[in-house]
């Protein structure tokens, strides 16, 4: 899941900033992105499977791709909004100071979009937990494939009708989600609010 | 005639287009500023002061006319000019000292002088 999130960040930050800070690019890319994003990730999953199942670590790879497909859009839309909200005066100041590309990203763009990245990542990781149940356990051509993971455990228990096991696994996932929200996202969120807000 | 002006605006104009409509912000501005001169532009809001300021510093290319800095046509942002914006435009996530350091570093100031920034603030 963190791999999927990292890959998503890697491409959504540059593209999101490009769209958010360039009105002409936004005019023709924004509709394209919205249409592509509206395709449900789970609908594409069988297609991913056909491609990835024959590769080594196929289902793991397919699971990462599914989570990526379902989550990247939250990040992209938030980053577009964040880049669009950078005050013009700050952009002018960066230009007047002749900040080079590295300095501009470090002092202006990344801090300015940080709160938006956190919001997007929180939403995205929620979707990724959801996707993991579908992605980690697959019945395909009469074969059952699964990887090690809480999503696979839940899907497996559901398929077997083992309700006590399903309850335990679901509680386990809830605990994990709550713990990660408290320990990771909440801290990042507070940091975003205290340090990186535009006031 | 060959006198060097610090700044020269030659029939500068700026218009904005939005669909079919055109809005003329400034039109046919001719202005010369000599070194050491103090110039103030006065006018009601929306009359084009900020537009002119952006054109003078090179943040914006005028739609017509040209800007000369020391008799040379201005290309890109003028490294010898700056604007203090109404909003001040500090980077809100940086401390006062860090904001100053960003500007010092960008101005080509080496490490040694950047380290003086906190010391100077202590004096102030």
Quick take:
Chain A has 199 residues and is mainly α. Chain A has helices at 2-21, 23-37, 41-52, 58-84, 88-96, 101-135, 150-160, 163-195, and strands at 137-140, 143-146.
Largest sheet features of chain A: 2 strands, antiparallel
Counting H and I runs of at least 4 residues, what is the number of helices of chain A? 8
Largest sheet of chain B: 4 strands, antiparallel
Query: Which two protein chains have the largest interface (Cβ within 8 Å of the partner's Cβ), and how many residues from each?
Result: A-B, 19 and 21 residues
Briefly note the structural class of the backbone of chain A. mainly alpha
Describe the structure.
The complex is a heterodimer of chains A (199) and B (124). By secondary structure, chain A is mainly alpha-helical. Helix content of chain A is 81%, strand content 4%. Chain A has helices at 2-21, 23-37, 41-52, 58-84, 88-96, 101-135, 150-160, 163-195; strands spanning 137-140, 143-146. Chain A is elongated. The two termini of chain A are 33 Å apart. The mean pLDDT of chain A is 83. Chain B is α+β, with helices and mostly antiparallel strands and 124 residues long. Helix content of chain B is 26%, strand content 27%. Chain B contains 4 helices and 4 strands, in the order ββαββααα. In chain B, strands 2-1-3-4 form a 4-stranded antiparallel beta sheet, with helices on one face. Chain B starts with 6 loop residues before the first strand and ends with a helix. The mean pLDDT of chain B is 84. The interface between A and B is medium-sized, with 19 and 21 residues.
